[in-house]
Amino acid sequence: YGKLMHSGYHFIDPFTWLAEVNTQLEHKRPDRADLFVKHFGPYDFLHQIDAADYQRLFGTDLFAPCFTPEKLQAARQFGEQDVFILCQLKRGDVVTTTATLNLQQNSFSRRAWTETPDDVYKGNGRVRHERVTLQVGTLLNIQVHSYQSYEVQKKDVETEGAGDEHHFDVYVFRNSGVVGGKPLEKFSFGEAESQQHRADTTYLGHNEQGREVNFANFLEGRADGTGFASHRLTNTFLSKIYMCISKESHGEIPQTAFAL
DSSP secondary structure string, 66-87? Predict the structure, then answer.
């Protein structure tokens, strides 16, 4: 398995959750989905940055054993690092929603060492770069931006806003002459949450705080809108995406269509 069965799931799930707003409009409710998927894996990565590149960048041949013909061939069987998804939801032959999801593990990192640290999850150069754009026709545009420039609790950059550990900004652009409201609003949730928890030594960030709430609700039997049954559509999409990845691996066109 790869990216989709790790952090990628948390992007497929919000997509299906947001798309379900269409079910409230009976005469515009989509009844099928079309998918086209491309992926990038370890076999590709080992050719993108090869043994000579490692020697040049790090001054060591430590990684040469990873580039033997046998190891390169074995890498073909590993899970996806990056996934690029184009999806259209349709009602009959009419498109109701178009979505593109780009999920990348092979992306910006602060990793610059050859020895594996004890914490390979949050202590191995990982930084968060996330962006979501919701375009509601000509009426509304919502953008979410969350970018880090350094690892959690390892600040070596003097910055506020973009690049900060807790950066999470939401911009709302409205066609106010039609739908009302302000033409532009900005909400800095990450900064606000960080300030609110300044005295809490256990606070790790807004993402972790959200997960803690969900987990506590699960343990205590409280409904919070994210029960197992609510993930049915997410897992349907996940299985269809993997079907497309499998098709591409077997030389077929990586696309599929299915009823909703």
Answer: GGSHHHHHHHTTSPPSEEEEEE
Q: Residue 45 corresponds to which tokens in the numbers above?
A: 């990565």
CB 183 within 8 A of CB 208: no
3-class secondary-structure state, position 193: helix
Contacts of 65 (CB under 8 A, 6+ apart): 71
Q: Could you tell me which of 21, 81, 25 has the C-alpha nearest to residue 49?
A: 81
Using CB atoms within 10 A of its CB, is residue 209 exposed (0-12), middle (13-18) or buried (19+)?
middle
Beginning with the edge strand found earlier in the chain, give each strand of the sheet holding 129-136 in spatial order. Answer: 129-136, 140-147, 169-174, 184-188
- Return the structure tokens found at 105: 């593990």
Cβ contacts of 245-253, under 8 Å, gap ≥ 24:
245/37, 245/39, 245/80, 245/83, 248/37, 248/38, 248/39
* Both structure tokens of 43: 């076999």
Q: Could you report how far apart the first and last alpha carbons of the chain are, in Å? A: 25
- DSSP letter at 117? P
Closest CA to 236 of 7, 13, 11, 3: 13
Give the SS3 label for residue 64.
helix
Torsion sign over Cα 70, 74, 80, 81: negative
Question: CA 107, CA 125: separation in Å to the nearest integer?
Answer: 11
7 close to 13: Cβ distance less than 8 angstroms: no
What is the Cα Rg of the chain in Å? 21
Tens digit of pLDDT for each residue in 11-66? 999 999 999 888 888 898 999 999 999 999 999 999 999 999 999 999 999 999 99
pTM of the model: 0.90
